[in-house]
User: What shape does this take?
Amino acid sequence: MYAVQSRNIIRLYKHCQITWKSNNTKNRLAFFQQIKVKNFEIVGTEVIKNGEAIRVRVEYDYQVLLKPGVKWLNPKGKVIDNSLKRMYSIVSVICEKEPYTPDLKGTWGVNPISFMKMKEVDVQRKKA
Assistant: This one.
């Protein structure tokens, strides 16, 4: 999350999962230069095991500001403007030895697509 805050594409790419990096270049992370993340906190974690595969889901709550002129659609198709918004993401962190090969003796990496699925914080969600 600190790499997202700093908008450092090289640092972001370094922490991406091996499978994602095998199919993408740093340029695919340009989205993160269009946002400014502030005041983040981890609000939940979950470890998911499936045989040898293990994945950690991390839920973040944060504020985001889009650069002026940048338009982004939320999952419901509503345009998000560039005012400060409270958002959350459920990010997948996966341990792999090589692409498409989950292994606990491998390297942990973030799936950046999971972070990009930002959702606006719903007041009722926060009460739960």
Remarks:
- Confidence is low (pLDDT under 50) at residues 123-128.
- The CA atoms of residues 73 and 79 lie 5 Å apart.
- Strands lie at 35-50, 53-66, 72-73, 79-80, 85-98, 101-102, 107-110, 119-120.
- The longest helix spans residues 9-14.
